[in-house]
Specification:
With 577 residues, the chain is of the alpha/beta class. The protein has 20 helices and 12 strands. Helix content is 64%, strand content 10%. The model has no long low-confidence stretch (mean pLDDT 83).
């Protein structure tokens, strides 16, 4: 774990080194002050020497100011180092997440990744700062104060040794027991964040079905589980303070009782006893700081392990060192392809698929829910790799291509249409950042989106809310299609991407595809036969295997599934009419 995190703190190594140096100087200067106080009491006040009091007092003020300066510098450099570590960790995790394949992403919930990027990083940042400052200050203060106290009176200082041993045992037992609770607590945070995210994303559905009470109860249940887990951890942690207070008061009582007897005997002065009380507080406060740091480090350890999981995750899809950078054409070939999301040959989602698609062809893909239509097309741009068999694009195995080069030539409009917050023009330029206004308008006309965009007061500068909530489902689909076309791909995949548009608009889009991008290979997953009946080839999938292939007329004559779908839709249309 430390090996993984170390490189992200290396940029701030000088700040990380300077922080404990200034802390050590601050502590040394602070530890001199009680000795000067004892000197003022014994040699100044008791003897009535005002000049001595003033002289030593000015020295104390100067030392206090130097100590303050050292503390301020330690705080500054500690903040820079810890905030820098947090920044680097967030950037590194975010960058690594961008490289994840779909199978990598499937391992983590969205809420879990958000918690790692926020709460977990903050915990590590706080722990790192405490380690640089408090965990340097506390042991140094403890050692110096103990040394000074033994110089003053060795016998009384043995009280401190007993207190240190007692507290060390108690804190050690608590830390070993509380660690698992913190790990469980962060998992509950993930669940809580997932609940909130799901509710806010689907708030329109919640309100449409009047399920606010149900969602509230679900949230309260998740929150209650987090509460109970937190309480279990806190029950152990709150024991630290009573134990600390018991130890502090016991030390003060013992010092007062035994110190008074020693003063009466004449083996120690009043000033020395006062300095011992000061060192008592320094020692016990140091122990308290060590306890606090231990608690924070225990919590941060769980967070750090979760962060390292993301940092050490390697994409299951990588480009070869000498990967091909150019896709020659849009031909596609599936050669005995099998696929399982879990790599399990006994539980295949695609089974022995063989399919040849020539460059420029339009291919329709039909099938019932769960027939693996989306799975099939996701193998083309290597969103997943085939478990066995070969997928070829441009007469070359897709695994031989550079991932970026391959995906730049394959535009895919996913089943779930996603628009990002920003203007319509900014969303469209995801397909080509350098696209001109004329190019934007051209692809929007192809996708039948230009007309409704022009009706907005700001046109192409209309702001899209997060998730595209201020446009309809059909408008969102057409914008996503336009965005895909702007890439000028060799292969265009529409994964049920016209389901929310009317049949007339659907026909207009298909007509534009035929006339404007004839050389682009087009794969259209659809539920409506009317969306694919003009295709050069129609593939019927059933339970992960190809049940039939051919033109509309051929399948209508030979394939039972296609016949059933066609007649049910025809009958539905007649009933509707």
């Amino acid at each position: 774990m430390l090996k993984t995190l170390k490189p992200y703190a290396a940029q701030f190594k000088w700040q990380a080194i300077l922080t404990p140096i200034f802390i050590i100087l601050e502590v040394i200067l602070e530890m001199v002050i009680p000795l000067l106080m004892a000197a003022i009491i014994d040699n100044g006040l008791e003897k009535g020497d005002v000049n001595y009091v003033v002289r030593v007092g000015l020295i104390m003020v100067a030392i206090a100011m130097c100590s303050l300066a050292c503390g301020a510098l330690a705080g500054k450099y500690g903040a820079i180092a810890s905030a820098g570590l947090a920044r680097n960790l967030r950037a590194a995790m975010y960058d690594n997440i961008q490289k994840f394949s779909f199978s990598n992403i499937d391992k983590y919930s969205t809420a879990g990744l958000v918690t790692r990027l926020t709460t977990d990083v903050t915990n590590v940042q706080n722990a790192f700062q405490m380690l640089l400052r408090m965990f340097t200050r506390a042991p140094i203060t403890l050692l110096v104060a103990m040394s000074m106290s033994f110089l003053v009176n060795g016998r009384l200082s043995m009280i401190f040794l007993g207190a240190i041993v007692f507290l060390g045992i108690i804190i050690g037992v608590l830390m070993t027991r509380v660690g698992p609770y913190f790990r469980e607590m962060f998992e509950k945070y993930d669940a809580l964040n997932a609940n909130v995210q799901e509710n806010l994303t689907g708030i329109r559905v919640v309100k449409a079905y009047v399920r606010e009470d149900y969602e509230t109860k679900k949230f309260q249940k998740t929150s209650e589980l987090l509460y109970k887990c937190s309480v279990r951890a806190e029950k152990l942690m709150v024991m630290v303070m009573p134990v600390m207070q018991f130890t502090v008061y016991s030390c003060i009582l013992l010092l007062s009782w035994l110190g008074a007897q020693i003063i009466v005997v004449g083996d120690m002065t009043t000033g020395q006893l006062m300095s011992l009380f000061t060192y008592t507080m320094n020692i016990l406060m140091s122990l308290m700081m060590i306890a606090m740091v231990t608690v924070m480090v225990s919590m941060a350890k769980s967070s750090a392990e979760r962060i390292c999981e993301v940092l050490n995750e390697r994409s299951s899809l990588t480009s070869k060192k000498w990967a091909e950078k150019e896709v020659l054409n849009g031909s596609i070939s599936f050669e005995d392809v099998c696929f399982s999301y879990h790599g399990d040959q006994e539980n295949l989602h695609l089974s022995h698929v063989n399919l040849q698609i020539a460059s420029g062809q339009t291919v329709g893909i039909l099938g019932g829910t769960g027939s693996a239509k989306s799975t099939l097309v996701q193998l083309i741009p290597r969103l997943y790799d085939a478990t066995s068999g070969t997928v070829r694009v441009g007469d070359r195995d897709v695994r031989e291509y550079d991932l970026e080069a391959l995906r730049n030539e394959v535009s895919m409009v996913l089943q779930k249409n996603v628009l990002f917050s920003g203007t319509i023009a900014e969303n469209l330029r995801w397909g080509n950042p350098e696209a001109s206004q004329e190019e934007l308008e051209r692809v929007c006309r192809l996708a039948c989106a230009h007309e409704f965009i022009e009706k907005f007061p700001q046109g192409y500068e209309t702001y899209i809310e997060q998730g595209g909530t201020n446009v309809s489902g059909g408008q969102k689909q057409r914008l996503c299609i336009a965005r895909a076309l702007l890439k000028k791909p060799k292969i265009l995949i529409l994964d049920d991407s016209t389901s929310a548009v009317d049949t007339h608009t659907d026909a207009m889009i298909r007509k534009a595809f035929r006339e404007e991008i004839p050389d682009t290979t087009k794969l259209i997953i659809a539920q409506r036969i009317s969306s694919v009946q003009d295709a050069d080839l129609i593939v019927v999938l059933n339970d992960g295997h190809i049940d039939g292939m051919g033109t509309h007329k051929e399948l209508l004559a030979s394939n039972a599934i296609y016949q059933e779908v066609f007649h049910s839709q025809q009958k539905g249309g007649e009933d509707h009419a």
